[in-house]
Amino acid sequence: MEILIKPVVTEKASFMNEEGKYSFVVANQANKIQIKEAVEKIYGVTIEKVWTQRYQGKKKTRYTKRSIIEGRRPSFKKAIVKVADGEVIDFYDNI
After folding, report:
1. Cα–Cα dist 45/82, whole Å
2. Terminus-to-terminus CA distance in the chain, angstroms?
3. pLDDT (tens digit, 9 = 90+) per residue, 27-81?
4. I want to staple 87 with a disulfide (CB 3.0 to 4.6 A). Which of 3, 12, 45, 91 is the partner?
């Protein structure tokens, strides 16, 4: 099971990076211990704290000739990790 799916790169997440907090979309089954170990292994930093949040997928509606089709985007789980003072994660290192 892949724990870290992708980093969250938004304006709000960029402001949190200055405080030493980084956001990731993670697997729905992943717990805080697995997330902490995965981030420490991949990025080589020390994690002090992990917060997790579950998001329900947004409702989407599509109007067609025959009818109205309603559905949802997939739900996902987001994790915010706080790294130790003086350490940083560079998401653009492998580009």
Report:
1. 10
2. 24
3. 999 999 999 999 999 999 999 999 999 999 999 999 999 999 999 999 999 999 9
4. 45
| Count: domains in the chain | 1
Type of residue at 80: I
Residue 95 lies in a domain: no
DSSP assignment of 63-89 equals: E-SS-EEEEEPPPEEEEEEEEPTT---
pTM, entire model: 0.85
Q: Compute the Cα dihedral for 91, 18, 26, 84 and give only its sign.
A: positive
CATH number, domain of 49, equals 3.30.70.330
Contact 4, 26 (CB under 8 A): yes
User: Which structure tokens are listed for 71?
Assistant: 């559905």
